[in-house]
Amino acid sequence: MRHTLSKISLAILSTTALGIAFTANAQQPETEPTDIEIIEVLGIRSSLTNALAEKRSAASLVEVIQAEDIGKLPDQNLAEVLENITGVQITRSAGVGTGVQIRGTDANRTEINGVSTVGSGAGRSGIDFEDVSASIIAAVEVTKAPQAKTIEGSVGGTINLRTIRPLELSETLAAFRVQGEDSSLSTDGVKPRLSGTFGDNWENDHGKFGVVISGSYAEQDVTAFRPRADRDNLVRSDSGLASAQSFHYLPIQFLIQDYDNFEYETKNFAGSFEWAPNSSSKFWFDAIVNDQDRREESSRVQASGVSDLIGVSVPTEFETIDFGALDGVDLGSIQAALKGIIPVQSDGSDGNLRLSSDTRSRSTKSKIFRLGGEYLGDNYKISAEISSSSSDSATPRIDTTLNFVNPNAAIGSANDNGTPFEYDLSGGALAFGIAFGAENAPAPADLLDPANYRLQAVAVANNTNENTEDAARIDLSYDLNMSIFTTLDVGYRYNKTSSVSNVVGSNVSLSRMADSPSGDMFADILTTGPANFNAADGRSLYVKDFLLVNPALVGSDPERVFTCVG
């Protein structure tokens, strides 16, 4: 049987056993007591009961979530675990929780076993929640109202992640979990998630010893599809434009097919050793090591320049946009473009197909070490501790933008070229694609020819951050046993924080065709873009044949990519 760190035991005396016990005690006082049936309450009920007991006994406003079993917090992601707490909000990337706000602010402290953590960047909020696996955490504690002994530095609150304490185990702990994650929006197959924990304690002539070791390995591939269509201009019925109707309407301004992909590989280790020489003293040592590689391979297909065609692009269908009412006043309604084709003008300078790849990585290694001890006297407790936290991160980034040059349209001097688009916004799909049946349209094979692409922009960065904090503290709590003042707490804390950042970056933008390298000059670093933008909703109208700078190559060999396009 697996046991959680904290559990509550409920003793129930059966009616028969209770009656026998009373009778035996009356006639034979020296008889040994009757065995009592013990029912141990574990799982969700135990975690909720213990968390509630912690909140009631706390001297300040505290929220606690405990794991119902080893490695079983409510969610696999710590940010999403904290979302269950009142007053806590989270931010997401591609649907995955990444940031935590308490009472609307990111300026919060993050601790592990009461030790300050340092972040992967220039911020002060501590370790990123996506860097720590929930499988090694036994409980999450959020303090919203600080006490005098609370370490300063937070605006919204303090988040303390607690691991399993060895001397609190009632028996040997061994747990191992194997899981897999398969996303219908990903093309990389099943991603593994492994975690294991072992803990035990024992006694000998030198006191009681305990050790707990937890580790986890997880891969995650998350994808988000984000289509966008802007209709924020106006074609008036009396404008005299070729596209004018007998009514005012909103034309198409902007179309974007955004594909966000994030890949994570996370390795976590947590180890704790405790020694209690006697019932009055205890010593401990904790070590937590996190290693995460995070890679973004996102792409963006953009129909730019279509706002210049509102005078010639005639929608084939419209829909009514109702603005509703405000303070009882009807705000009216207006017609908006719903379906249609955006053609190519004779000079081929508008309706441009632009392809961008947003590729960045973050490799972070963080370590936390904690050594301390405490002594409990008759009416006082004294504790001392030293700790060290460090985080080293590298965040290389290469973002590129390519323009497609339609060989079937007139070619001008600008680094872009006309491409006809078809759009269908019905049903909220916000779908668009290449109008292959329109005049001067390119063939699908043209979209896969590197010679038809021009480099439009390159943004390169390679930032590094090294953050450390060394701290020491000593605390004394003395029982006063007075009617007004119950305890006297005195403490001293020393910490030294260091943050070193190295920011390197450059941006190049090319607007003239004569200055822009042709795609066949760097064809070996080009690849076809994601062709599964329809995986989310089954749409048939989308852009699936195009080239962009290989995002996987940017992550594995950035020097090669930079040499080709730099």
Global mean pLDDT: 83
> Helical element count?
5
Please report which band the strand proportion falls in: under 5%, 5-15%, 15-25%, 25-35%, 35-45% or over 45%: over 45%
Q: Tell me the total number of β-strands.
A: 28
Helix fraction by DSSP (H/I, runs of at least 4)? under 10%
Which segments are poorly predicted (pLDDT under 50) over 5 or more consecutive residues?
Answer: 1-29, 38-45
What characteristic shape results from the CA principal axes? elongated
Quaternary organization: single chain
Largest sheet: 10 strands, antiparallel
Structural class: mainly beta
Radius of gyration: 32 Å
Ends: how far apart?
Answer: 60 Å
Quick summary:
The protein is mainly beta.
Report on this model:
The chain is mainly β and 566 residues long. Helices cover 8% and strands 48% of the residues. It contains 5 helices and 28 strands. Strands 10, 11, 12, 14, 15, 20, 21, 24, 25 and 26 form a 10-stranded antiparallel beta sheet that branches. A hairpin with a 3-residue loop joins β20 and β21 (380-404). The longest helix has 15 residues, at 43-57. Mean pLDDT is 83; it is low at 1-29 and 38-45.
List keywords for this structure.
566 residues; mainly beta; 5-stranded mixed sheet; 28 strands; elongated; disordered N terminus
How would you summarize the topology of this molecule?
Elements: E1 8-11, H1 15-27, E2 38-41, H2 43-57, E3 62-66, H3 78-82, E4 88-93, E5 96-102, E6 109-112, E7 115-116, E8 139-143, E9 158-162, E10 173-181, E11 191-204, E12 207-230, E13 249-250, E14 254-278, E15 281-304, E16 315-322, E17 325-326, E18 329-330, E19 333-342, E20 352-376, E21 380-404, E22 421-424, E23 431-434, E24 453-479, E25 487-502, E26 505-509, E27 526-528, E28 547-549, H4 551-556, H5 558-565
Parallel strand pairs: 6-9, 13-19
Antiparallel strand pairs: 1-2, 3-8, 4-5, 6-7, 8-9, 10-11, 11-12, 12-14, 14-15, 15-20, 16-19, 17-18, 19-22, 20-21, 21-24, 22-23, 24-25, 24-26, 27-28
